[in-house]
Amino acid sequence: MTQRVRNTISIDEKLLFEQAPGNRSSCDFPPLDVPSGEMTDYLPAALLRDDIPGFPELNEVEVVRHYTRLSTYNYNVDLGLYPLGSCTMKYNPKINEKLARIPAFVQAHPLQLHENTQGCLKVLQKLADLLVKITGMDGVTLQPLAGAHGELTGMMLIRAALTARGNPRKKVLIPDSAHGTNPASAVLCGYTTVTLKSNASGCIDLDELRRHLDPDVACLMMTVPNTLGVFEKNIQEVARLVHANGSFLYMDGANFNAFIGVARPGDMGVDVMHLNLHKTFSTPHGGGGPGAGPVVVVKELVPFLPVPVVAARPDGNLFLDYNRPQSIGRVAAFYGNFGVLLRALAYILREGSDGLRQVAENAVLNANYIRHHLSRDFHLEYQQPTLHEVVFDDKNQAEAGVHTMDMAKRLLDLGFHPPTVYFPLIVPNAIMIEPTESESKAELDAFIDTMRQIAREAREAPTLLQDAPQDIRNTRFDETLAARKPVLTWKGTGPA
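RE: above sequence
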């Protein structure tokens, strides 16, 4: 097949420190018009040094060109498909960005008087109302700043409600197909976690659930669809069993884009759920942020929602209400990431109810299209159709000594970003592919052809994959070490 055009420019870009010639200045300063003095008059001597060997001496043009060239190394969703899916990179319509840059919104300050921020408060109120309707719940907080933050907030609400009943309880049940942050949120709220093994279809085993339900169980934290992309078809029975035990049902809403507009979690018996706006509602999530993780809840949990809450006075003016005696308090310094919330509202209003349903339908169609065309080349641990994502593994390629990481690195050579690898943990050496609803058939076909090429290479030329990547600036490195012990300081001795 023809290799995809590279999305980067092959330039061996040196650090600023390495390309700066010595004995040069980038600007001339005018004579001082204030009294001169020693730096030690203003800063402690311990914070000063006599010289900075090799300090860059570059002008503006050189610096701008340096960072522009560096930017060409980055793969982004405006260049091509991200099989990582909505978990990290999902296309963000540009109209959302345009609306978020309206000067009146950009220049608003969270400490302004309510009288001067009625438009902003109306945005928050409108978004809150729509999220409640879309999910079939009774109340919402927009304050959490990210998905995991919303997850923690949801668990805090459950603990507060159980404490108000007289007993916060001790345990949280978590299926092995749930998102990896769930146990951390439960533990931070003082709970012990118990893992539930999934059945052969990758869903919650009802008998396993029954065995573990007891008076100490605070809630069940489940991900729907789960990390295999499988919908929990017995969710209503799960909810009945959990509620009969006096426990709450928590839903991780990370994968809500798989059935938005088709079904509502509130109708399934869910009590609390966080929403990842960057996943379902197409807001930006670059560089680890910004983010937003609203939490929707049933009526029993509404009194415990974080303060403040947008409310209306008798004259119709909106304000931030702090008079909530049972509230768990603030979970953020201010009322959420307003710009992200505004983008989510723009997305919902643009799509409408029919459009949101089509989002889910397209996401499911795209994932199953890939599943169908790659299932002969890559092993599927769970055979049933999935929703928004499909999880393969490397069993077919392992016989030739080719493993998941090798295939991920080879994708870099062929012009695609790798999918999520080694997650979910329920599938050893997993290859999780989520194309989202945004991609065309042509782009999906290009990705499928590339994955098939990799499968052929694994059989015919395994060393090609084992040595990948070969066609990009950086070769294979220890990613764990890079994450745990990144080198953030230049160690050179001066300009090259």
